[in-house]
Write a structure and sequence with these properties.
By secondary structure, this protein is α+β, with helices and mostly antiparallel strands. The chain contains nine helices and 31 strands. 16% of the residues lie in helices and 29% in strands.
């Protein structure tokens, strides 16, 4: 059995710690998935064990584990570290229990095959048993599932697993038995933790050893033909093929949820010397059971989880826009969860736009308008959960530029940004807010010459969409203040006719010609107009007044000044003539 000396063993990342994730196999990932890490031993060319591991991967990643061409299992992201990671000395360290983004895993699966003679690999290195114990005691991940081959006591692998189980649950004194069993393994329906596993009854296995002296409530699977114990919960039961401990019973409530299954043959589909296969009868049933147990309200005893959403999730086109961010903290348990702390860092360019509120109990909520951080500290979660509601804004200055008016992704990382009493489900809370690109219509009248009544006229003006989104709906491009007798005709490039109301893509220009014979002079400045639009939410068009293109046509007062100047000149000439005479 592991001693306190083992419990204090320092972490040793070794050269394989970083390599494990760098060289890992990342299987299909979906948003907000349960994040799983798979650690395995080196099985060499022993086909039955490599087959078991392949089937384990298929079980947790495929919607139909019997069909490798089936769709990915929804809501699961599985990363396998280097295939022989557990067989290397000092290869398991703290870094391995964080994914590529630095987030903790929901589940760690430890899978080992038979080992221990010259024709087979050596199984898990002794240094990694101590490292796993520390990881479980400190809840490096929410739950650990151990499928450790118990056949033949090869290299004492199962004995070491039972020693670990006992070390992290000090109230127990379990031992590994020498009995080997095969067949249907009944679910202990009298265990208070059995509900998550109801569809996995029985579970089939081949050549498993059993565990003795397990508290009745912690026996998850029994031996073939064994009836669920009716003894008091803490009475000891022999013959367990699978054991289970919720977080509240591991390392005084500080540890991870823990499953121990005494063989990997539950995934087997290859014929072997022990009489047939078990995997096909378990396919499609093992993963849902263990995944459900690790969710909020499942057998693991993790009650708290966190989710979030923006409403609306897509902002209308225009200079900025407002949305409401709702952060939901779940409590699937039956008691209030204390020590709630939530920190949300809004991604640029989002800002808090008003007063935030919460239905969580007590604590301090801070979310200053114009800032990018929301924080709820020292609060509590009532049974059924609570919410944090925050008005947010995408500033107009950012919405009008092509480089920023895209999608902002907002993520809260459990264990880092979200903690609650008793632990929390580690599935990240992610929400996206999309900013719709806006149009920006501008009119230029520099092609309009002066207008003279009664004289044929030809001029032009342009309307350009300088924004990063199309102008659609009732788009208007034109001029006001033209005198009677002039007509306007507009085209887009390639001389395609364009009329007010047609869409105008970003970067496109409409050229409008003004022709005819004006019957009067303009009575005021010529003004370019752009918009409005009936696109939902409006388009950044507006009306732009440009310098008047009105011609400088002489008025009556001007002719009077000309005549006066002429008379003065004539008078000056007559005076000069008289002087000469």
């Amino acid at each position: 059995m592991m001693t306190s000396k083992h419990k204090k063993t320092a972490w040793k990342a070794g050269p394989w710690g970083a390599l494990a994730l760098a060289a890992g196999l990342v299987l299909p990932m979906q948003a907000q998935a349960q994040n799983i890490l798979l650690l395995t031993t080196d099985e060499g060319n022993l086909f039955t064990e490599t087959d078991n591991i392949k089937n384990l991967i298929n079980e947790f990643t495929l919607s139909d584990p019997s069909n490798t061409a089936s769709a990915p299992r929804p809501g699961v992201a599985l990363t396998r570290a280097a295939p022989n990671i557990l067989s290397q000395p000092n290869s398991v360290g703290p870094a391995i229990f964080r994914d590529g983004a630095g987030n903790p895993y929901d589940i760690v699966i430890v899978a080992t095959g038979v080992a221990g003679n010259p024709s087979r690999p050596a199984g898990m290195h002794a240094s990694n048993w101590s490292a796993l114990q520390t990881a479980i005691e400190t809840r490096a991940a929410n739950s650990f599932i151990m499928f450790v081959d118990g056949c033949c006591n090869q290299a004492g692998q199962m004995d070491k697993m039972v020693d670990l189980l006992t070390a992290v649950t000090p109230a127990t004194q379990m031992t590994a038995s020498g009995t080997t069993i095969s067949g249907p393994l009944p679910l202990n329906t009298n265990s208070p933790y059995h509900a998550s596993f109801g569809d996995l009854n029985p579970m089939y296995g081949v050549a498993l050893r059993t565990i003795n002296a397990t508290p009745a409530k912690n026996v998850l699977y029994l031996s073939p033909g064994q009836q669920p114990p009716v003894a008091p919960p803490d009475d000891l039961v022999n013959g367990a093929s699978g054991v289970f401990f919720p977080v509240q019973e591991v390392n005084g409530g500080q540890g991870a949820c823990l499953f121990g299954v005494t063989d990997i043959s539950v995934f087997g589909t290859s014929e072997n010397a022990w009489g047939g296969t078990s995997g096909p009868r378990n396919q499609g049933r093992i993963a849902p059971a263990f995944l459900n147990a690790a969710k909020a309200g499942g057998a693991c005893g993790l009650a708290g989880d966190i989710r979030k959403a923006f409403s609306p999730g897509v902002l209308p086109a225009g200079p900025g826009g407002d949305s409401t961010l709702t952060i939901t903290v779940g409590n699937a348990g039956t008691t209030v969860l204390g020590s709630l702390n939530v920190t949300d860092h809004l991604p640029a360019p989002l800002q808090v736009a008003g007063t935030a509120s919460t239905t969580c109990t007590g604590g301090m909520l801070t979310a200053a308008a114009g800032s990018s951080q929301v924080r709820l500290a020292d609060s509590s979660v009532p049974v059924g959960g609570c919410t944090i509601t925050v008005p947010v804004r995408w500033p107009a200055a950012n919405a009008a530029t092509a480089t920023t008016c895209t999608t902002a992704t907002n993520t809260i990382v459990p264990g880092v940004d979200f903690t609650v009493q008793g632990g929390q489900v580690n599935t990240p809370a992610t929400a996206t807010l999309q900013c719709t690109p806006a149009a920006d219509l501008r009119v230029s009248l520099t092609g309009l010459p002066p207008i003279r009544p009664g004289q044929p006229y030809s001029g032009s003006f342009t309307c350009t969409n300088r924004g990063n989104g199309p102008a659609t709906g009732n788009t208007q491009c034109g001029v006001t203040g033209l005198p009677p007798g002039l007509a306007v005709a507009c085209t887009v490039p390639a001389s395609q006719p364009w009329t007010n109301g047609d869409a105008l893509p970003e970067g496109s220009t409409v050229t409008c010609t003004v022709t005819g014979t004006p019957t009067a002079a303009p009575t005021g400045p010529i003004t370019g107009t752009a918009g409005p639009s009936t696109q939902p939410g409006g388009v950044d068009t507006g009306t732009q007044a440009l310098p008047s293109a009105t011609a400088s046509i002489p008025t009556l007062s001007q002719w009077g000044m000309v005549l006066l100047a002429g008379l003065l000149a004539l008078l000056g000439w007559r005076r000069a003539q008289r002087t000469q005479a």
